[in-house]
Task: structure prediction
Amino acid sequence: MSDAPRRTALDATHRALGATMTDFAGWDMPLRYSSERDEHVAVRTRAGLFDLSHMGEITVTGPRAADLLDYALVGNIGGVKTGRARYTMICEAEGGILDDLIVYRLADEEYMVVANASNAQVVLDALTDRAAGFDAVVRDDRDAYALIAVQGPESPGILKSVTDADLDGLKYYAGLPGTVAGVDALIARTGYTGEDGFELFVRPADAVTLWEALTEAGKDAGLVPCGLSCRDTLRLEAGMPLYGHELTTATTPFDAGLGRVVKFEKTTNDGDFVGRAALTAAAERAETNPPRKLVGLVAEGRRVPRAGYPVTAADGTVIGEVTSGAPSPTLGKPIAIAYVDAAYATPGTEGVRVDIRGSHEPYEVVALPFYKRQK
Amino acid sequence: MSNPQQLRYSKEHEWLSTAEDGVSTVGITEHAANALGDVVYVQLPEAGSTITAGETCGELESTKSVSDLYAPVDGEIVEINEDVVSDPSLVNSAPFEGGWLFKVKISGEPGELLSADEYAAFIQS
Result:
């Protein structure tokens, strides 16, 4: 590992804004600019601006790019139309999750794979290995892009004022090249906040121009810069899994309740892909002998469950484990995502508690997500 | 940020008012509140209980983490701030005022406490 944390193209901007910075996967990233709660509320009610340049972009091109990705990932990537995006995962041969990804099909023979910062090298290495024998090129584009997200109900209006791209024609989970604030960008209607919003991939040299233009355009709409802290509470309320918490190499997509991302029928390769046999078995296991299930927990009290805390039944028996927890600004109560035994996974199950440093606090089992935006 | 001159400070980032009739008000500093982020839950020692300098006497929970609250002095808790229990964000918005945590009747000599300037130098180092 290198010593000094990496800095994004917006580093000086963050410091000028007074951000509290934090080390995240080897990057020095903004944790928050002011109050993480205010930033969270801004994204839910108005708009927030995020620097996500730590995310790992990998470009896959060539006549057999689709075949390679169908083989390397669990989704049916060959079936993704140009201009659309797909949430998917890359698994080990044994079925464990290496990372969750978003794949954009930019052209017939060109894809961009976006990996989590902490896994970008793992994903790059796996794709490179798995490319053997395919007429396709895997390119490390981590340094080629800065990524800025504008998220929240006001984000379409804000972005419209600085682009002539057809945002109305851009569906959720779609991405197309365009110009924003005079700079070339891949404009994607994706995000990780549970709100409508956009992710803008641009050259690092253009990042400050874009950030400043969006800040100016969003001033009257109440747009504020947002850090990683509120991003975590936003995604938690939206029930979105986070790698290292809900998803790990010890977990298959079926164990995570995300078996739907695994496509045994694929457009190419006759459905063959890395992990197929193990995931077929995991799917059968999930059918016959349900593993622990991912559920939502809402606190009755005010103490906050944290990742790793045991979930218990009324008699103190451990029945699961918290994977993520935080005070929910939207619900006004602490919430958590936890794996619990199937017998306790039904919403409304009585007697479920979280062991918060020795004190067994009552929790209500609810279906995920905690929060769903009104469309 | 400025640390009020009339207060004394512990290295665990608590502040104490000058004791009147042996009773001192205790809170956490703005520096500590900023480092914690939004405080969402406080657990304070009960009125009537005794605390021992250097030992934990409560918890401060923020969005991201939970931190122990340390007793800056030996003494008996005479009052806790019910306002901060019901609205922990006072710790962030007014750490030296409405966000005070408890009042303690100090017994014995206070331990090593810093002046405002010494504390400012301490958090810079």
